[in-house]
C-alpha cells in the first residue's frame, strides 16, 4: 500500500510497526535473524519496521512464529486490516466497477442520523440527478480505466436520495459556488441538476449553504469530506481516506464550523443557484 497523505493512516501504520519491532526485540532477534526465520529478504523486515509497507496476514503469522508470540496474531492481523482500510485507492475500490462502492455509501447513509458534507468539486451524490451522475461517473471510469458499470452504479448512487425523504436522517451540506458553475455533462444536464438543488432545499431534512466566490476566506477551499456522526471520509483524486486520529477529526469539525459561517442560505443561496442556471443560457 502506498504511503498515505493522511497522518491518521500513517500514524496507525507506525504504531503497528512499533508493536512488531517490540516483539522482535523481546524475542532477542536481530532484523536479519528474524528475516532468515521468516524466509524473506532483510529489506522487507526493514520496510515493515519503518512503516513503509503494511504486512499481510501471512507476514504477521510468520513474524509472530519467529518471535514465539502466536497469541498476538489475531490482534495484530485485525490492526493491520484496520490500517489498510484507512487509505483505499479508488482504482482498487473500483477494480470491479463502481456499483459496490455506491452500495457501501448507501449503507453509511442508512445507518447515520447526521451527515455533514463539504464539497468543493461536484454536487454530493445524494443530491445528484441521474443525468448528472451518469456524466460524472462516466468521466471517472474513463479517467481511472476501471470496468464500466456506470448504469448500475448510477442506480445505486441515486438510491441514496430516498433518505432525504424517509426516516430521521439529516443532511447539512456546504457547497463552494464554483460547484454550481462547473459543468458536468451538457448545459441541459447541468440546468437539471441546479433546478434539482432548488427542489431539495426546502426539505426538512436538508440544510444547504453555498460559499460565494466573494466570501472572505476564514478557511481555504478544501478537499471534499463527509462526516457521518463520528466518522469522517475524505475524497482525494486517488483515494478515499478514513480519518481516525482524534486531532484530525477535531480539525475537520473546526473547519466545517468555520466554512458554515462563510456560507449563505435561504434566498441568498437560491439567488446564486438561479444565477448559475441563467449563466448556462
TrEMBL record:
Organism: Streptomyces noboritoensis
InterPro entries the UniProt entry points to: Cro/C1-type_HTH, DUF5753, Lambda_DNA-bd_dom_sf
Coiled-coil ranges per UniProt: none
Protein name, as recorded: Helix-turn-helix domain-containing protein
Taxonomy, superkingdom: Bacteria
Domain (DUF5753) ranges: 104-274
Amino acid at each position: 500500500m502506498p504511503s498515505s497523505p493522511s497522518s491518521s493512516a500513517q500514524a496507525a501504520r507506525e504504531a503497528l510497526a512499533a508493536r512488531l519491532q517490540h516483539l522482535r526485540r523481546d524475542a532477542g532477534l536481530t532484523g536479519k535473524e528474524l528475516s532468515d526465520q521468516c524466509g524473506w529478504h532483510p529489506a522487507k523486515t526493514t520496510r515493515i519496521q519503518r512503516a513503509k509497507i503494511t504486512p499481510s496476514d501471512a507476514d504477521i503469522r510468520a513474524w509472530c512464529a519467529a518471535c514465539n508470540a502466536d497469541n498476538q496474531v489475531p490482534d495484530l492481523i485485525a490492526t493491520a486490516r484496520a490500517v489498510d482500510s484507512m487509505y483505499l485507492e479508488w482504482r482498487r475500490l473500483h477494480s470491479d466497477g463502481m456499483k459496490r462502492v455506491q452500495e457501501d455509501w448507501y449503507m453509511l447513509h442508512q445507518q447515520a442520523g447526521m451527515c455533514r458534507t463539504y464539497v468543493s468539486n461536484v454536487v454530493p451524490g445524494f443530491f445528484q440527478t441521474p443525468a448528472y451522475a451518469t456524466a460524472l461517473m462516466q468521466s471517472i471510469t474513463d479517467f481511472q480505466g476501471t470496468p464500466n458499470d456506470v448504469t448500475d452504479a448510477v442506480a445505486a448512487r441515486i438510491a441514496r436520495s430516498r433518505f432525504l425523504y424517509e426516516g430521521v436522517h439529516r443532511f447539512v451540506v456546504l457547497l463552494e459556488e464554483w460547484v454550481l458553475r462547473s459543468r458536468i455533462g451538457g448545459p441541459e444536464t447541468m440546468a437539471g441538476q441546479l433546478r434539482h438543488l432548488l427542489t431539495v432545499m426546502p426539505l426538512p431534512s436538508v440544510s444547504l449553504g453555498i460559499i460565494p466566490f466573494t466570501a472572505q476566506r476564514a478557511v481555504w477551499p478544501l478537499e471534499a469530506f463527509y462526516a457521518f456522526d463520528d466518522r469522517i471520509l475524505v475524497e482525494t483524486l486517488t483515494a478515499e481516506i478514513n480519518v481516525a486520529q482524534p486531532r484530525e477529526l477535531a480539525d475537520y469539525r473546526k473547519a466545517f464550523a468555520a466554512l458554515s459561517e462563510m456560507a449563505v442560505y435561504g434566498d441568498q443561496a437560491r439567488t446564486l443557484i438561479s444565477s448559475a442556471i441563467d449563466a448556462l443560457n
